[in-house]
Amino acid sequence: MKIDLKNWFAFSFFTLCLILGLSQGVWAAGSPMKNHSRKTDAAQELIRRVTRDSSFPVSLKISKQGNNTYYRYAVNNGKLSIIGSDNVSLCRGFYDYVKNNGWGLYTWSGNNMQLPERLPEQETVAVTSPFPNHYYFNVCTYGYTMPYWDWNRWEKEIDWMALHGVNMPLALVGYEAILARVWKKMGLTDEEINSYFVGPAHLPWMRMGNISGVDGPLDADWHADQIALQHKILNRMRALGMKPICPGFPGFITEAFKRLYPDLNIVETHWGGAFHNWMISPTEPLFSEISEAFIHEWEKEFGKCDYYLVDSFNEMDIPFPEKGNPARYEMAANYGEKVYQAIRKANKEAVWVMQGWMFGYQRHIWDVETLGALVSRVPDQKLMLLDLAVDYNRHFWHSEVNWEYYSGFFNKQWVYSVIPNMGGKTGMTGVLDFYANGHLDALQSANRGNLVAQGCAPEGIENNEVIYELITDAGWSHEKMDVRQWLYDYSRNRYGHVPASLKTYWELLLKSVYGTFTDHPRFNWQFRPGSVKNGSINMNEDYFAALELFVASADTLAQCANYRTDLCEMMAHYLGGKAEILIKQIDQEYLLGDTVKAQFLQKRFETLMLGMDMLLRQHPNLRLDRWVDFATGHAQNAVQKKQYETNAKRIVTVWGPPVDDYSARIWSDLVKDYYLERWKRYFEARESGKAADLATWEVAWVEKDWQQPATPESLNVVDFARRMLALSKDIAAGDVVLNRPDLLATWSLAAQEEKVVELTVPARILSQLKGISLECLRGDGLEAEGFELVADGVKVASSDEKKVTVDGKLSYAVTLPANLNANNGCQLRLKLKSGAQRIAGTLLYVK
Questions:
Q1: Are 639 and 215 in contact (CB under 8 A)?
Q2: How far apart are CA 781 and CA 807, in angstroms?
Q3: Which of 721, 733, 724 is nearest to 608 (CA)?
Q4: What torsion, rounded to 10 degrees, do the Cα atoms 650, 655, 656, 657 define?
Q5: What is the gyration radius of the CA atoms in the chain, in angstroms?
Q6: Which H/E stretch holds residue 352?
Q7: pLDDT in tens, 632-683
Q8: SS3 sequence of 234-292
Q9: pTM value?
Q10: Burial of residue 273 (number of CB atoms within 10 Å: 0-12, 13-18, 19+)
């Protein structure tokens, strides 16, 4: 046998490197994209994908430096060299290099990175993150964003994560498949298991104990699909060195367990006034049995996991005695200990992860003593609290931030996070300066405690892209960022050029939607007609002026594909604002009795809505057909296709009901076929004097067979946007006489009509609400038989007192519980009765 000594020595040296664990420090060599260090293969492959260049000249090296998360890069002789603490840091370093040179962005709406054929020389740039980890996702993201994603879309998202420096994402796909295996081994039937499960888009709320049975069942096809998908997701995340947070068992079970355990203490949970689930306490032996079996089965399928998410109290009451009772705190401590021990029995190295939304949202429940007791028997390094919503503390609840209120979270690990989006709403909102610099307050606080990560927990992505680019950049910055300079650099990367009109555009948005925070940004036409007067988007004069300047920027940016994509979206926002004003004008004319003018304005409204829909059809993401296509792509037969498309439509419209219009997408086909059609039926009812059963129509729309829209015709979006601007520019808020800031809604009754009027109350006014007042604009003799105010499905105030108008007015005092919030909706129901003549009027709130 002849031996090639040269090759033998090379092979022996490489083997020795592997044995000694030295290979992670070997630089890439040879051809530009060849890498002899297998540790960096995943980063190399990612760079190849996003540059669309198999010969991009880059070498990568992983080198640990204590606990620092860092990267360094330089260019010598036309070759980019990056050193980082892990693969994600290498990818982040590459993306930072691209952006610092103005060569493009990798975003949900497109990848426009264009690198030169030869890289110019670059001195070393070094960046160290102030955080060891960077967190991403919300449990609800798996319902509002990705319930039906395929691997192609997931691969793009994982690439996005790595480029943006994210290394600690939630990874919840496949939970039901593993749970079904465990439960079947315990003796439940397939029918008992799968009939408990909900449709894919509603799974997050089943996992958190809020709901059961909506749009189910799930079946073996779905479970197999998700197992295969989760393997790909976790393999890619782990190849990149990410630390996925996987699902654990939180205690929610099917009621069918009573067949196997007749004496089992099972509690029925309630949420939103219409939904329920069932829960067993961690003190029950069955809890630990299922939890341990679940983790064993999960790790048998997917390998060992270091982090398990277990949430038992999302927006729900807790089964503990009243505050001040020592039994409350003993029970809470025992509860936390049992959850932790159940995880530890299966994997003694794992960390229990828990969402902290309720710590700001429900402080009337989660006072310092209660949370302190819950975590008191869990080792500090074995629990990680996700402080999800610092933006809500700062800009909506106006409350003390959680790390201060809970004194550093009792030295448990915790994550600084924000929620820039609820439900996938497309409307613009968010204080950009806060998203750039708010994390510095936590880093500099004496109560920073064991702060281990920064990140964001949006419920819906593929919108407001500027915010996510900013948040992920902020997570790598120790110093205060200049937002205006950052916006200039962002625009240069997005469009290649920054005309003066674009700089002013950003200045004006900073004075409107991107200088204020709205928890649920929606236009009034996205609500059921007749239920609300004002939308919640900050449409001041600066808002409209900014969007007009964005259209004007076409003079220099029209050839840029990213600009044209954004023009579709920004013009839709502009038309959405003008449509809101038209709705108010139409309502005003009906109240004042001018139906001819109302009908004229209705035609204008329809023109704007159809124009909006046409623009959105040109957008790569903001389309209902894309959403439904993801859903039906998982179907194996006609029954599944129908189930998945119905479920996909339900989550973005009626949700349940009754969490109606929560998701509020500004998408093509939703605008034309759902929102506009609903308003047209409402207008017809006002003209005829006959009530419209909109609730029934909504559900019928969701459940009817999906009609795939025709392929959109090629549209010159610049010319079309200019035409739509010309058609709508004259519509002004000043034309609405009934435009008072305290105006909640308008109402009308035919002669001798008696009905319950249901109106939506914005959650933002609850802290100020002291009463309600009805004022007649036309007619008199109104009678009211009381009211009922429902927040998050729970009645929080009511009166049975009968009243009649005096000088055209009647009022009720309203007393609300302290610390009241209404994240999932607030409705006011009034039972009204008219006399011999038609009556129309307004509903005002009293501070």
A1: no
A2: 9
A3: 724
A4: -110
A5: 28
A6: strand 351-355
A7: 999 999 999 999 999 999 999 999 887 789 999 999 999 999 999 999 999 9
A8: HHHHHHCCCCCEEECCCCECCCCHHHHCCCCCEEEEEECCCEEEEEECCCCHHHHHHHH
A9: 0.90
A10: middle
